[in-house]
Design goal:
The protein is mainly alpha-helical and 88 residues long. A hairpin with a 2-residue loop joins strand 1 and strand 2. The longest helix is centred in the N-terminal third of the chain and has 25 residues.
Length: 88
């Protein structure tokens, strides 16, 4: 019985989680560059780019391992994005 209840809760929350995560990324400022700030690769060179939203700004990475690297020092990459965006 407990398993059925847990499954029901998970299934009922899944659509909510989907809409919340979509809303967060949909409200984010789009990533303006065509390359990964962490890895330096052009987006798409290593497969489908990976998106991550940090404080209302979307960041795109060449691969999933770049996200933890970004999270270790987000201020560095936020500053780099700002400098690169001003140079466009």
């Amino acid at each position: 019985m407990k398993q059925k209840v847990h499954l029901l809760i998970i299934l009922s929350l899944s659509p909510l989680t989907f809409f919340v995560s979509c809303g967060q990324q949909g409200d984010a400022k789009p990533y303006p560059l065509d390359y990964c700030l962490v890895g330096g690769s052009d987006l798409g060179d290593m497969g489908e780019p990976v998106s991550y939203v940090h404080e209302g700004q979307e960041f795109k990475f060449c691969c999933k391992p770049c996200i933890p690297k970004f999270k270790k020092n987000p201020e560095k990459y936020i500053q780099e994005l700002k400098e690169e965006s001003e140079g466009i």
